[in-house]
Predict the 3D structure of the following.
Amino acid sequence: MEQRSQWGTRAGFIMAAVGSAVGLGNIWRFPYVAYENGGGAFFIPYLFALLTAGIPILIMEFTIGHKYRGSAPLSFFRMKGKGAEWIGWWGIFVSFVISTYYAVIIAWAMKYTIYSFNLKWGDDTGGFLFGDVLNLADNPGEVGGLVPGVALPLLLVWAIAFVILLAGVKRGIELANRIFIPTLIVVFLLVVIRAVTLDGAALGLDALFKPDLSKLADSTVWVAAYGHIFFSLSIAFAIMITYSSYLPKKSDITNNAFITGFANSGFELLAGIGVFAALGFMASQSGVPVSEVASAGVGLAFVVFPKIINEMPGMSGLFGALFFLSLVLAGITSLISICETYIAGFSEKFNISRKKAVVFGVGSAAIISMLFATRGGLYFLDAADYFINQFGVAAIGLIEVIMIAWVFRKLGVFETHANEISDIRVGMLWKICLSVITPLVLGYMMIDLFRKNILKLHGTDNGNYEGYPDAFIFQSGWLVALFAIVMAIIFTMMKWNKKTT
Ligand code: PHE
Ligand code: NA
């Protein structure tokens, strides 16, 4: 066995945890989720979800990693044998799937950083994305050929991740985050400052922050807040357990969790301000209400933002380049955190070197990711993202808290462990959050999800997510979510190398 890696400094660990948490979700997901779910009023369920689930689970996962000093499967194995180990592998394979398409979005953002300089997308930004860049197939489920213009930058993304991960925890991951995260903050601040000084910015901020208190009575708003917090904090998919397993023995846990949680939320708030200021500008330029230009995800970043950039007075290319560079930086630091989950898991389970685990893990993710660089890639990406997030992350979160709180009954032990080494002490309230509040909300959320997807209640043509055909939803949605569970069972059944445990 190689000696177990460690972070060099406390700031290095925090930077890496924040680097994982702050990702594409903060920039293109949060602003829209907040806007759609009550605007200013959304901050009530959002804060509630952060304080009752986000930070408590972060504290729990930091404690698990620190106490058992292992990748997610090894930590769970040490907690309660193979009956727990599978939860760690499940998180790892959900992470594996996410890494295969997350890298693709970073590749697009890289291309758009360059395109910004001469506003290469022209006036028809949608046509440019779906036609010129993605050469999108006509129907979901069609693979079509590889699109070289996407595949090449995608290889570059993997090469960057490969180099960072190969260099190790301290000299690779920690160093990269120490460079990328401060750079991201500076670059993104410039974007936000420019955005709020545009004409019409106030219009956008009004739309975002205007509180619609009637929404608070709607359970979907609370579910949206919880769902977003899980994704945004990178909890329940093995990442934070892996990262905290590299903490030195003498480390603070609870304080670090609060810092990570608040830093991530701070960045989201900043992104909300920047994005909606830009949308306000766009709306006032074209004389339409903000509701007509507001959107999320791929559409927001790669269709609407290029349009906004087209309209901007002065140095618009630079603004565009900085915006897309933010996506690249935020994305890469998250990507390396997901890859590290399986690198750590593989190297411990089979007692192979870090180098071999990186080559094998990142190599196979890179090969599979090429599916998303084909002409049908965007459809696959969309369906996989929806299913793996809804039925992966949220379901793991639910099972993780139920098993730990009610089956293994470990909260008391973790409480003692965390309190022994931390400034801020946790107690009864923390345990109630994890054993009662979070399972109730997540349980309701899962039932609702199954109901919606099985009874086809999406309000689209055929009621499936995005109105996709049944066969496509089955292969690219359900099967992908199932893949993570099946792989988790297979890997749990394999024998541990004796030297590891
Ligand atoms: N926390 C990330 C975000 O907000 C999500 C994420 C992290 C996704 C790591 C994948 C991997 O974007
Ligand atoms: Na986030």
Notes: The pocket of phenylalanine (ligand 1) is lined by residues 20-21, 23-26, 98, 102, 231-232, 234, 239, 334, 337-338 (CB under 6 Å). The mean pLDDT is 95.
